[in-house]
Design a protein that fits this description.
Number of helices: 2
Helix content: 40-55%
Strand order of the largest sheet: 1-2-5
Largest sheet: 3 strands, antiparallel
Mean pLDDT: 85
Distance between the termini: 40 Å
Number of domains: 2
Structural class: alpha+beta
Strand content: 25-35%
Radius of gyration: 19 Å
Number of strands: 5
Order of helices and strands: EEEEEHH
Low-confidence stretches: none
Shape: flat
Length: 132
């Protein structure tokens, strides 16, 4: 007989995540639930994930929208995506392009990584300072 369970965690991006899942008493399967904001994976002991949502209490500071936090989170996600795609292209090109082209791609990946790290630092500082 399956039973419904709730799992909560605070994600690295600062939000509280709520997962509704089902588990069978006779099994111990693991599923991966991703944060709805930043897609950070989190392991859940369950057979089936029903929903993954941001957990907001009406009285919590997280219920109040922070424009700067949202802007930084969007910028961080875009910067990470650019870095990830560049690193993937660089890995694919390793044995197939001229050295000069490889160095050019590598410098772009380094710049994308630096941009991502700087935006992530700004995001972390903002959330620490404002508690949002």
């Amino acid at each position: 007989m399956a039973r419904v369970l709730l799992a909560f965690w605070r994600c690295k991006c600062g939000i509280r995540v709520k997962v509704v899942a089902e588990e069978d008493a006779s099994s111990s399967n693991k599923q991966i639930a991703s944060c709805p904001k930043c897609r950070e994976p989190h392991e859940i002991l369950a057979d089936k994930i029903i929903s993954v949502t941001e957990d907001i209490f009406e009285d919590s500071p997280a219920a109040v929208s922070c424009g700067e936090k949202e802007r930084l989170l969007v910028a961080q996600n875009k910067a990470f995506d650019i870095y990830r795609r560049g690193a993937s292209r660089l890995a694919e090109a390793t044995a197939t392009v001229a050295h000069a082209d490889y160095e050019f791609l590598a410098s772009r990946v380094r710049a994308a990584r630096q941009s991502f790290l700087e935006i992530r630092k700004q995001f972390d500082e903002h959330t620490a300072k404002h508690g949002c």
